[in-house]
User: Fold this.
Amino acid sequence: MDDLLAEFVAETREMLEAIEGELVAWEAEPSDRARLDNIFRFVHTVKGNCGFFDFPRLEKLSHAAEGVLAEVRAGRRHADSRLVSAVLAIIDRITQMTTAIEAGEELPVGSDEFLIAALEGDASDVGETLAMHSAREDAETKTTDAGPQAPRSIRLPVALLDRVMSGVSDMVLARNDLARRLRDAGNEPTLDGPFERLSGILSDVREAITKMRMQRIEHLYNAIPRLVRDLSTELDKQVMVDFEGGDVELDREMIEMIRDPVTHLIRNAIDHGIEKPSERLRAGKREIGMLAIAARQSGNRITIVISDDGAGLNTDKIGEKAVSSGLVSQKELDAMPPESVTDLIFEAGLSTAEEVSAISGRGVGMDVVRANIEKIGGTITVSSNPGEGTMFFLQIPLTLSIISALTVSVDGQRFAIPQSYVEEIAHGASASVEFSRVGDTDLVTFRDRRLPCLTLNNVLGVKPRGAGWDQRLVLLRLGSGDLFALAVDKIHDQEDLVIKPLAPAVMQSGLYAGTTLLDDGSPVLMLDIPTVASENGLVSDVRARPAQVTVSEKAVVEERGRTLMTFVGLDGKRRAIGMQLVARIDQVPHDAFAIDDGRAQVVVDGKIMTLVGVGNDTEQVEIPAGNVKLLRLSDSECELAYAVAELGESVIITQDLASPEGDTRLEGVALIDGELIPVVDGYRLFAKHGSIATPVEKLVCRLPEGDDWVDRMLQPLVAAAGYRVASDPDQTADVTIVLTDTADAVDTVDTVANGRVIKLYSDPNAPIGKDDSIYRYDRTALESALRKARIGDRS
Amino acid sequence: MRELILMFDIAGRRVAIPAVEVQSVIELEDIYPVPRAPDYVTGLTAMRSQSLTVIDCRKALGQESKTEYGERSPVIELDGHLYALLVDSVDDVVETQSEITPVAGGFGKEWENAAQGMVETDRGPTLLIDIHKLIGGQAAIAA
Assistant:
């Protein structure tokens, strides 16, 4: 059922339940004004809602009831018992219809006319009263038998959800604390079991709660068509809007946070982007402008793309405006590549609208849009082609309260950096890193990019020092696109942290965005990266941009390498894999793994995934106790989980890989920081383990009917081989399996309707060798026959 | 009106806060410093898997800090945040024997910022501290 409809049903039900008592009381005391008001409000709300959903019958009924009740309220009619029963009959009918809607059934048949007619002052027909009763009885039977067909939903205040959420977050922290104490206390087998169980339940609950707060992005989309319609009418434009990814879910809070920015972008697109029909025709486009909004989830982030096929951003005009408003000088502007000029629209005080119209230019500029997106840890970028259109890319995190962060330390104290800013990490001693000092400022040259470099020591005022080779570098990219390096003593781990607000006294230092407790119970502060950058003069200083651009242009030319992700496998050896395959990094508990008989699987997010990196048939690798890190690899169609012991850095290699010397599992050997690191062959990995992409149209396999062995043993095997089991004897099958014990008519099987025939013998000594005659427990042969059948069909 | 108050010493003076405002009294273990925070914030510490902000009460009053503090520390909640107070020593919970009264001439410049008034107890007159002023007041001054 549609989300909105479910909400309508839930709301109606809720109100029905609430007025049930009122109805009875009103029946006893028709002159009771308060009850009357409540009932009036109910029919009024129902009427309003059904207009929205196109339930003409419901609307008519509630409208009639509303009219009569309004008259009573106005004192023009007296609420006698007959009128009361007429209203009650209507409410019963509404209940009945709501139940039908909820169950997804047809609305109950029968005319509502007599119910409405019964409301009239002079109606007193006995037949009508009878009809009313019958309607009521119908309603009663209906409600009892229309039980749990459709999932029921209730409405909850968000504040309550937030409370539960924060309670669960606290429980996670308490659990971590307990885990630490248990570790300290040594091995306690009697406690470990229940504790593991508690942990498991807790993570389930946490996930469920997170889901509770999730809402489909449709809720954001729903208001847009109307907005587009109103705006385009007002501006004499024709705009068609297209949505994609409405089923992407994100935190309710987040939806509210992006509502304004998205609305603003849409207003802009219609007001400034899409041209008037006549102009569009002149430009050789369709009269109707297209506005597309697409949402996509990638890992822990959501990407929303808002694109239009309008005139695009006018870089000349933006540049002109930027110069006239003093944002940049003409000289700086001339040095800017077009992309940087379009980026200027995010600067404060730049509005290209020639005149302030009613639609845009209400003092909310793109700078505010960007600020709002960044406030929730997101980013926004724009790309535009003159005459072809504009695209805005928004990247936002899934939730607000749990943030994926990198923990680093300086002078033994740990700090967290939100993962969303982290572009890369590098070792200070790495050959690709070179430090230099200009005055008191540290610079770092990293793969031919010269970046400003802060040391966390200086930022925090803890043992101030210059950046050096003994440190690690975290490359951070700000929302504005500026890149800088932060040198720290150590880089620890990437963790999902539950971030809590800080006391105002600590907050005012401006360096921290929140606090959380790590697994070992120590508090850790999360750095407020944008503030740190701006305090050190690194933020989006437009004036500084041209200089930076020249450097990055150079970098683009030379950066033709591949990015590899290095890691340490469970066998303790360092390896690397192409970064493009790594979709995300997960942690799963020990008990999520299932390895036996060469089949290795792991449960991640309730999905079973094929597991690799745990050795092969000959040499199994022990899964360590506790949480295990997984690289989730994706070839964009199927996913694999690669269990690793430790994550390394991402590195860009520019040289070709050395040959792997006969090891077919490897793509080659890379030279990283003077060490030879084998690179796992992702292509082979997917070829071998990536579950055979199920054909779009599943092949049908007919099985003998009414045989227990078939139901129990054969059917799952056939289904696992990617077949659908024929349910209807008349259905055309691609493969038919027959048991020779039961199939007297094997030879008469019609190969047109039944496709290829596989015969199964129950006697292992039966004459084997003929094609497709297989001993019933010879699984390999059966599977290969099924596979052959499919390949034969496809070729 | 009789009220329970927690008595403790700051800078050698006997002071008290209403016991209802005290969540618990803990023994401070590790304190994690917060670089570049105001100097009266000693750092963060953890209690029952929550983080607490540790406030040096002497500094919060604008006095010289002491090198050694007592091990026990009252924990209070203010606007949803938990604070642990670094004090000289924690005494006991006692019952007040009077209303809160002002003292002619005030309590002295530094104390005045945080004082709520004086109460009588069976251990003599005691200065009742206003926790909002003690923590919030300094924040406002510093900001």
